[in-house]
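ok so for the tutorial part 2 we go from a plain amino acid sequence to predicted structure tokens. step 1 is just haveing the sequence, like this:
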Amino acid sequence: MERSLPPQASLVTKQYTGTMKIHQCDRCLLYAHNPYLVCTVHPAGPQGDSCLDFREDPNAEPVELWEPEGASYYNGELILQPQQHRTQQQQLELLDTHPMFTGKCPQCGYEFDRDWSARVHWDCQNSECGWMDDTV
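step 2 — the prediction. this is what the tokens look like for a chain of 136 residues:
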């Protein structure tokens, strides 16, 4: 004979495995703050990743949107930004003149092939020009 657990035990198990409570619950006015009950509207927790009955609790602590300097969160993961070795003016000049952005050699105007997906080097193909990409 299979032994079944009381309903409270299964709810606690679900809650601690993360299948019941969503991130909004802690800031919801309807949140029960009880390990056996998620909220008054959805005792077993909302279905899915969001809750249509969510009501912001005015007394809840605000969500901290802090990011360390030189880093940003993307998809919940902290990504360090690379150190820039060019000034903003140099970056803008690169955007205005580099063949990757213009499609043309900055020295002679030679037009590059438009299939840039596999291109690594941007040296000019005009034999008389000799311009070489020194940004890499």
